[in-house]
Design brief:
single chain, 226 residues, mainly alpha, 3 strands, 47% helix
Length: 226
């Protein structure tokens, strides 16, 4: 028979948190976008330095939740905007009227809008005690899922290392080309100038070309026989 915690997860009840101003919030369950916002808090803040000490995902549930809570709180000073964005994504105003598949009346719509307007004001810059209370409730609620996810990631990482996929492949060795081999020279060949030596065809002599030459005396005519 499933224990009480398993039944609660099969049929989750709303988790409520009242702020110091009396405004009541409902804590929602973490999904993909909220998880990425939490990672942004840890990576932008002091999380990386604390992660070097190690976060034991195989520890007892309450111990894991306590260490994760400290990790998140210590990351907030260096990740102020990320932390506020994460809290806003993990909450919604309690008492919001919702009719799945139905249409709200004008009065219900106006009441919901007023709730969300107050929600934005309350979580814009909440009291420090309210911030810590919200983080504690959220971490305690999500610690079992985050711990199970961490164990799964550790298994994948161990397999990744075991198969050697974490090592960079060696760079391919290119063959060394012998520049002295025929056909390997990279010098550009120059074409020799066309030789003008040798016989050339003569053109017909023009009168202008012979004008400067001395005239040859006419040969004497042969005497006629008598």
């Amino acid at each position: 028979m499933p224990d009480e915690s398993e039944l609660d997860r099969l049929d989750p009840q709303p988790v409520l948190c009242k702020m110091s101003t009396g405004f009541e919030l409902e804590i929602v369950r973490m999904r993909t976008r909220q998880f990425f916002r939490l990672l942004r808090v840890l990576t932008h803040g002091a999380g990386p330095a604390l992660m070097q000490t190690g976060l034991d995902f195989s520890a007892e549930g309450s111990e894991f939740a306590s260490k994760l809570l400290v990790l998140v709180v210590m990351s907030i000073p260096d990740a102020e905007s990320e932390a506020v964005g994460f809290l806003q994504s993990m909450c919604k105003p309690a008492g919001e009227v919702a009719r799945p598949g139905g249409k709200l009346t004008k009065a219900e719509t106006d009441a919901n809008q007023a709730l969300w307007a107050q929600f934005a004001e309350e979580l814009h810059n909440p009291e420090l005690t309210d911030t810590l209370d919200l983080i504690e409730v959220i971490i305690n609620q999500e610690a079992p899922e985050l711990q199970a996810l961490g164990k799964k990631l550790q298994t994948i990482l161990a397999l990744f290392r075991k198969t050697g996929q974490d090592k960079e492949p060696p760079e391919p060795q290119l063959p060394v080309q012998d520049l002295n081999l025929p056909g390997r020279s990279h010098r550009r060949s120059t074409r020799s100038a066309t030789s003008t030596a040798g016989p050339t065809s003569t053109s017909s002599t023009s009168p202008s070309a012979d004008s400067g030459r001395p005239s040859k005396p006419p040969e004497p005519a042969a005497s006629a026989s008598t």
